[in-house]
Design goal:
Radius of gyration: 23 Å
CATH topology of the domain at 12-62 and 175-258 and 355-404: FAD/NAD(P)-binding domain
CATH class of the domain at 12-62 and 175-258 and 355-404: Alpha Beta
Number of helices: 16
Shape: globular
CATH superfamily of the domain at 12-62 and 175-258 and 355-404: FAD/NAD(P)-binding domain
Distance between the termini: 49 Å
Length: 534
C-alpha cells in the first residue's frame, strides 16, 4: 500500500502547539536520524501514538554523512559475518522497492592489478550473489583488461589485469531520512526538529516521558509516554548517563559508555575523475581499509576512513592523515589523481559503533557493525549501532524489545516491509538515476506539488529552484539555510563554495516563509569548514 496523502504542513507553530498539548503518547523517541525515524514510522504504522524529538535537524549527524550506499557489506562478507550480510541484502531490496525515487541499483567495478585478485574477489562476490538470491540486483561478471577500462575509463591502465563487476545500491541519505519523517507524520506521528530532550521524567523510578526544550525559544515542554526510546546515534550515552544518575542512591551511578565513535571522511570531486556511472571499489588498500569512488548527484565521492575519535563534535574536521590516505590511495587506481585543489567539499561523520563492555581499546575496525538494543532498569530503551541499510529491521527489533519488556503491547510486525514511502507512487522506470545531476526526480510523485510552488521557474542553481526552497519550508520541516542547502538539497555536500554563494538568497526565501532567523552567517561559516583541508 502506498502513501498517497497530500503534503502535510510542517509549520513550526503548529508542531509546537501539538507538543504543548497534555497528551499521553505510547512511545517517545529521542533522535531524528535513520534509527529513530525508522522506529517512529514502524510504531506509527502499527497504530501507536508516537512523538519524536531531534535536538538539531533531521539527519544532521551521521545519517546525512554516509557513503550513500545501500549495500549488503562486501567487507562484512570477508569478515565472515554472513548473518549481517544476508539481512542487509534483504533490506537493500526492500528499501529500493519502497523508495525508488531515492534509492537505485548501482554497478561497481573492483579492478585487479594482481593475477589472483579477479578469481579471488570474484568468487567472494559470487557468494554475495548467492546470499542475495532472488533479491539480487545483477549478476557478478569477470572482466578482462579491455572490458574493465571500457566501464571504468579513468582507471589506471598500467598493470591492470582485469576486474570484477558486481551490483549494490545507492541512495540519498538525508532525503530518505526526511521522507521517513514525513511518512511517519502521514501515519499520525508528531515529529519536531530543533527540540532537545533535556531530561527524562520518572514516576517511582520508571521512565514516564521526556522534558523537551524548543531550542529556538528555550521553552520547556513535558511529554508523557509509556515508553521512551533513546535513538540518538553516537550521542546515546548522554541520555544513558542521565538515566543512570537518576536511578542511583547517591546520584552518581556509573554508566559505562556503549559507543566507540569512529570517524569517516568523504571527499567530493568533479565527475570527470571517474568518467561514468559505474563506481570503483578497492576491497583492501595499503593499510587494509576499503576505498570507494562513487558517482553521486553529478559529482564523485571518494572515501572512506575508519578512525577512532573520542570527542563527539557535531561538525568534526578531518585529520590530515585521513585526507592524505584518500588522495594517495585514489592515485594508485585512477589515471588522473585528484589533488587538494580539486576538492569541492569534504565532510565527516561519526559512526556509532557498539563497544564491547570489556573493551577499552581503539580498534574500531574490529568492532561489530551490528546494532544493539538495551533496556535499563528504569525502562529506558537504547538502540545504537547498525547502518542505514538495515534501519527498518532495527526498528522492528526495538519494538520487539519494547513488547518483551511489557513497555508496549505486541502488535503485528512487518507492516513496513511493503510500505511505500512518501513520493514513491511513481514507476521505477520513470525515475532518473540518482547518479545524474539532481532535480525533481528525488521528489517522486510529489513533483507536481513542487512545481505548483511560487518561484518554481526561478532556478537558483542546477537542481535547486526557489519553489523547492518554499516546499522545504512548508512541507519538509526546513527552518534554516543549512536545512535546505545541506539536507533538503545536498549542495553543501557537493559544492560547498556554491552553497555559500547561495546562502543569502535561500535565507531571504526562508525568512519570508517562516518568519524565523534562517542563520545565513552561521551557514556561510559552516560552508567554509567543508572547504577546509588540513
Amino acid at each position: 500500500m502506498a502513501t498517497t496523502t497530500s503534503p502535510l504542513s510542517t509549520r513550526r507553530d503548529d508542531l509546537i502547539a501539538q507538543l504543548a498539548l497534555d497528551r499521553p503518547y505510547d512511545i517517545a523517541i529521542v533522535g531524528g536520524g535513520a534509527t529513530g525515524l525508522g522506529v517512529a514510522l514502524d510504531a506509527a504504522a502499527r497504530g501507536f501514538k508516537v512523538v519524536l524529538v531531534e535536538s538539531h535537524d533531521f539527519a544532521k549527524g551521521t545519517s546525512s554523512r554516509a557513503t550513500k550506499l545501500v549495500h549488503g557489506g562486501v567487507r562484512y562478507l570477508a569478515q565472515g559475518n554472513i548473518s549481517l550480510v544476508r539481512e542487509a541484502l534483504h533490506e537493500r531490496t526492500t528499501l529500493l522497492n519502497n523508495a525508488p525515487h531515492l534509492a537505485q541499483p548501482l554497478p561497481f567495478i573492483m579492478p585487479s592489478y594482481k593475477w589472483w585478485e579477479t578469481p579471488f574477489y570474484g568468487i567472494g562476490l559470487k557468494m554475495y550473489d548467492a546470499l542475495a538470491g532472488k533479491a539480487g540486483l545483477g549478476k557478478t561478471e569477470f572482466l578482462n583488461h579491455d572490458e574493465t577500462l571500457k566501464l571504468l575509463p579513468t582507471a589506471l591502465a598500467q598493470g591492470l589485469k582485469g576486474g570484477v563487476k558486481y551490483w549494490d545500491g545507492q541512495f540519498n541519505d538525508a532525503r530518505l531520512a526526511l521522507t521517513l519523517a514525513r511518512t511517519a507524520a502521514a501515519h499520525g506521528a508528531l515529529l519536531v526538529n530543533y527540540c532537545r530532550a533535556a531530561d527524562l521524567l520518572y514516576v517511582d523510578g520508571k521512565v514516564t516521558g521526556l522534558l523537551c526544550e524548543d531550542t529556538l525559544t528555550g521553552k520547556m515542554y513535558p511529554v508523557k509516554s509509556r515508553c521512551v526510546v533513546n535513538a540518538a546515534g553516537v550521542w546515546v550515552d548522554e541520555l544513558r548517563q542521565k538515566d543512570g544518575a537518576a536511578n542511583s542512591d547517591d546520584g552518581r551511578r556509573p554508566t559505562k559508555p556503549m559507543v566507540a565513535p569512529s570517524q569517516g571522511v568523504h571527499i567530493v570531486v568533479d565527475r570527470e575523475f571517474l568518467g561514468g556511472d559505474v563506481a570503483l571499489m578497492v576491497p583492501k588498500t595499503a593499510d587494509g581499509r576499503v576505498l570507494f569512488a562513487v558517482p553521486w548527484l553529478g559529482k564523485v565521492i571518494l572515501g572512506t576512513t575508519d578512525t577512532p575519535r573520542h570527542d563527539l563534535a557535531r561538525e568534526p574536521l578531518p585529520f590530515k592523515e585521513e585526507v592524505d590516505f584518500i588522495l594517495n590511495e585514489s592515485a594508485r587506481y585512477l589515471r588522473r589523481a585528484p589533488t587538494r585543489a580539486d576538492v569541492k567539499s569534504v565532510w565527516v561523520g561519526l559512526r556509532p559503533l557498539v563497544k564491547p563492555q570489556d573493551d577499552d581499546g581503539d580498534n574500531t575496525k574490529g568492532i561489530s557493525r551490528e546494532h544493539t538494543v538495551l533496556v535499563s532498569r528504569s525502562g529506558l530503551v537504547t538502540v545504537t549501532g547498525g547502518k542505514w541499510t538495515t534501519y527498518r529491521a532495527m526498528a522492528e527489533d526495538v519494538l520487539d524489545m519494547c513488547a518483551d519488556k511489557s513497555l508496549l503491547e505486541r502488535r503485528k510486525k512487518g507492516v513496513t516491509t511493503h510500505l511505500k514511502l512518501m513520493g514513491a507512487d511513481i514507476a521505477a522506470a520513470q525515475i532518473q538515476s540518482i547518479c545524474k545531476p539532481p532535480g525533481l526526480h528525488s521528489y517522486g510523485s510529489e513533483q507536481a506539488s513542487v512545481l505548483d510552488m511560487p518561484g518554481a521557474e526561478n532556478l537558483l542553481c542546477e537542481g535547486l529552484t526557489e519553489g523547492m526552497v518554499r516546499f522545504a519550508a512548508r512541507f519538509e520541516y526546513a527552518i534554516k539555510v543549512e536545512d535546505v542547502l545541506a539536507r533538503r538539497s545536498r549542495l553543501l555536500f557537493l559544492d560547498a563554495r556554491l552553497a555559500a554563494d547561495l546562502a543569502q538568497q535561500v535565507g531571504d526565501i526562508l525568512l519570508h516563509e517562516t518568519g524565523l532567523d534562517p542563520e545565513v552567517k552561521a551557514f556561510t561559516a559552516l560552508a567554509q569548514r567543508y572547504l577546509q583541508l588540513p
